[in-house]
């Protein structure tokens, strides 16, 4: 790697967990992306990519949840899909002591890409591993990797508040991924953990599948 004999370095996961003799067998597995850095908190000089493998057939992801939406007894199911996405933002912002900001934008300017629904919040953000695990449909506790982190890790339901504020508004409980693919054909999640300088981006596309 062109390292000088007296140069210090660390090897970390994309989650910035340092690889040591004690955790090597737990964290270093086939397909895991690693960083070679001068320090754990070193700023990355360029963007990196990490591949996510799916075990289920892609139809399990892009078509699951459809029954719940189409069986909504004549109601317009779109608000329920949006509620799933807002629910994630409510969970992410539940511990903010200041102003909780959640924006919903409908983008129709096709010069900037295809029409889209954007949900933006000032929540705590997700690590690369949390984004990875969000992408895996119905991730089983029996198949989780050793450094598994839920995208809702650390979430504690707030004291009784209106339902619209307590991250409990999802109607069908089918989750954000199914809501995304009910609304459109692809999802792009961009997240920066509150205690990190890294920005993580996840793209799920039916066309890519």
UniProtKB/TrEMBL annotation:
GO biological process: double-strand break repair
CDD domains on file: HATPase_SMCHD1-like
InterPro entries, A to Z: HATPase_C_sf, SMCHD1
Superkingdom, taxonomy of origin: Eukaryota
SUPFAM superfamilies: ATPase domain of HSP90 chaperone/DNA topoisomerase II/histidine kinase
Pfam families the record matches: HATPase_c_3
Name recorded for this polypeptide: SMHD1 protein
Taxonomic source organism: Oceanodroma tethys
